[in-house]
Design brief:
The chain has ten helices and ten strands. By secondary structure, it is an alpha/beta fold.
């Protein structure tokens, strides 16, 4: 495979080894690896970080290997964001895998084909391998659909798209005042929830780079590609060492399926409102949880 792969590892060598086995099967010509440093006060973490670094240093197929090993812990937001800047400064496009994102082998040719197909289409900014709402999409005739949601459990993109990334969510106030989210995400409650997430991210009250990327795509009126079936299993859901997926939420767990080839491409880039709503419920907030969250917000209890 000629498409380069960026690996984002930290302190879970067991998960990282499983991901590395899948990457080994694809044999990319270039591998980039970012391994964050151990956190202060975590005596056991240094050996775990070293084990993840060793996995990269033991790559055994012919390829270029580029490493960014941190001496100190950068954290999820700054560390991953900087690693992505490092990667896309050197590559026109590529695949990104975190240590808990275990892809089906067909994930790699799926990404590579679409990266080349939409290489010069500025509307398309993100290709995901994850689809935990696949029961609503698996019947589709086409191999993938277009969406506004940038799911990041195994994904791919281009430098031209990442250049639009605004880690500080520039222009958020105007984005909200102009009501731009109303034409992009269905439902008042969902729109309110997403704006709240964007404001929290802009104030750096969470550790997320992904919400900044999501906002940047929406602000650019960009599109994302989601496969009709789930191609990446997040094996970190429910893991005590996870940063954002410690809770074992059944609606966010799905095993990886196989993509069939040749890919069948949609005839247009339209999004489906009904599918967008289900993708929101499965990746952001379940319907009943969203209703409670919105009610508490209206009553001033949140």
């Amino acid at each position: 495979m000629q498409t380069p792969v960026l690996l984002l590892f930290f302190n879970r060598p067991g998960h990282a080894a499983a991901v590395m086995d899948r990457v080994r099967g694809a044999r990319p010509a270039r591998v980039y690896a970012h391994v964050d440093g151990p956190r202060e006060g975590r005596a056991d973490e240094e050996s775990l970080v070293e084990a993840c670094r060793a996995l990269v240093q033991e790559i055994d197929w012919p390829c270029e290997v580029h490493t960014l090993f941190r001496d100190r812990n950068m954290g999820l937001r700054d560390g991953v964001g900087d690693a992505l800047n490092w990667f896309f400064a050197r590559e026109e496009f590529g695949i990104v895998l975190e240590d808990d994102c275990l892809p089906d082998p067909t994930f790699f040719p799926y990404c590579e084909e679409l990266l080349l197909k939409y290489r010069n289409d500025d509307r398309v900014m993100h290709i995901t391998g994850s689809n935990v709402a696949e029961r609503y999409t698996c019947h589709l005739a086409d191999s993938y659909l277009f969406s506004r949601f940038s799911l990041v459990w195994g994904w791919a993109s281009w430098r031209r798209a990442w250049d639009k990334m605004s880690s500080g969510l520039d222009g958020l106030q105007a984005f909200e005042e102009e009501g731009r989210l109303r034409s992009l995400i269905p439902g008042r409650m969902a729109q309110t929830y997403m704006m709240d997430k964007f404001h929290v991210t802009s104030r750096k009250e969470n550790n997320s780079w992904a919400y900044a990327w999501f906002y940047s795509i929406l602000d650019s009126d960009g599109l994302c590609i989601i496969p009709k079936v789930n191609l990446v299993e997040n094996v970190g859901v429910g893991d005590a060492r996870a940063t954002n997926t410690r809770a074992r939420l059944r609606h966010r767990q799905a095993s990886a399926q196989m993509m069939t080839f040749p890919l069948r491409h949609p005839s247009n880039a339209d999004t489906d409102i009904g599918l967008e709503r289900q993708i929101f419920y499965h990746t952001q907030k379940q319907k009943w949880r969203l209703f409670i969250w919105y009610l508490l917000r209206l009553t001033g209890l949140r």
